[in-house]
Here is the input.
Amino acid sequence: MAGHLFAYPIAVVWAMASIPLAIHLFIDEIDLLPDKEAVGQFVVRRVAWPAVTAFVVVHLTSTLWAFAAEPARGFKRFIRALAGIAVAGALFGLGSWGWLVMR
Here is the structure.
C-alpha cells in the first residue's frame, strides 16, 4: 500500500521534470499543431512515459519491503530506493527547468 501511495507524487515529479525535454525534442511537431489544447494533449502524451515508468518502478521497489526476510531491513531498503527515485526526479526537474529558463 505504501508503494502505491508514494508512487503518485513521485510520478508527478517525473512528469513535471520531463516537460522541458518533451517540448525541446518535439518542438517542430508542436509548432504544426492547430491550437493550445492540441499542444497540451501532445505534451501530456510525451510526458506520460517517464511518469508511468517512475510509477511502476516505485511499485517494484515496494517488493523490497513486502518480501523481505527481515521487515525492518526491507523497509530501510524501500525508503532508500524511494528517496533515490524521488531525488533523481527532483534533480532532473531542476536541471531541465533550469536549462529551459537559462536558454
